[in-house]
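pinging the channel bc i need a second pair of eyes. not urgent but kinda urgent?? the chain im working w is below, pasted from the shared doc
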Amino acid sequence: MGMTKGVKILALKLLDRFDDHLSAQLLFRHYYDQRPSEQYRRTFPLGQYRFSALHAVSFFGIVEIVATLLEGKGCDVNATARAQGSALTWAAREGHEEVVKMLLEQEGVNPDQADKGHCQTPLSWAAMKGHGGVVKSLLEQKEVNPDRADKDGRTPISWAAGSGHDGVVKILLEQVEVNPGQPDTVYGRRLLSWAAEGGHGGVVKLLLERVEVNPDHADRYGQTPISSAASRGHEGVVKMLLEREEVNPDQPDTYGGTPLSRAAEMGHEGVVEMLLERVEVNPDRPDTMYSRTPIWWAAARRHEGIVKMLLEREDVDPNRADTKFGETPILWAAARGHEGVVKILLERKPNTDQADTDYGRTLLSLATQRRNSGLIFPDEWV
C-alpha cells in the first residue's frame, strides 16, 4: 500500500532541515561509526556529517519521499554526506534499485562520483554488497567506468570477487574495460587471491576459466591463491587449484611458509591431507624465518590430528629444532603443557638429550618437573 498524503506531509516536515538535526548525526554514526576512537570523535564531531534528507531517504529506500524531494527546488543530487558519498552512493550500497534509477534520471547527476573516504564509486559499493540489479543500472550509464579503482587500487570486480558475489563478477567480466588480472596497489593481490581467501568457489571457478588469470600469481607477500585458501581451510578451493598444472602446491611465501605449513599451523586437517598426497609437496620443508617445519607448527598449535598425519611420513623429522629458541616440536609442546601432542611425539622416540638454546632445557630435565607440569613421561626418564 502506498504512502498516504498525510503521512507524506508529516515525513517531509520532519525531513525539513534534516541535516541540522541531531537524529541525522546519530543515524550516520549508528550505522557506520559504531565504535569511533577518541581521535575520530575529535576529527568528526557530531554536527559535521552533512547527512541530508535526500541521503536519509535514499539510504532507507523510501521511494515516494525520494520522488517528492527530487521534485522540489534546490535539491543537490551530488552533495556528499561527509566521506560517505552522494545519495546515489547510499542507495547503491543498500541495494535500492528503484531509488537508484530515479537518481540516475536526474539532470546533472554524476553516476561515477567517488566518495571522499575510500574513493569508492556507487558501482564499487553495489558490487561489494552484491546488488546485481543496481550494478546493471549503473553499467548502463556511459559515464560509469566499470574498472575504476579506489585509493587501494581495488576495482568493483575486486570487491565483488572478495565478497563472493559470483553473479556480479559474471556481469562485470562481460565488460570489455574490466581487467580480471589487475592487482590492487596495497597488497598486490589479484581477483583470484581475494576469492580464494574467502573460500568463494563459484567466483574461483569463473576466474579460472579466464586466460588473463594466472592461477599461481603471488601477491606482495608471496602468497599465492592456493596458499591463501590453504591457510583458511577452504578445501573446495584448494582442490580446484590443485587440478591446475600451473599451480605449485609447495610454493613458499615471503617468510618461507608453504601452503602445507600454513594449513598445519591453522589446524586444517582436510587441506593437510590433500597436500600430503602431492609428490611435489615437501612435508618437512622449513620456513625461512626460524626454520619451523609443518610438524613444528602443528605441535606448537596443539593440532594433534595433523601431528599424527605428519608422523606417518618417514621424510618428516620430528627432532628438527627451530632457530629462534632451538626447540624441537616436542620440547615446545612439553614446555607449554601440550600433553596430547607430547604423547603422540613420544612414540617416535625423540632425542632426550637435545637442549633448547634459550634455557638449556631437555626432555629429561622437563621430565623431572612432571609433577609441576602435569605431563606424562616414561617412568624410566625420571
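so The chain is about 45% helix and 0% strand. and Residues 5-15 form the longest helix (11 residues). — does that match what u expected or am i reading it wrong
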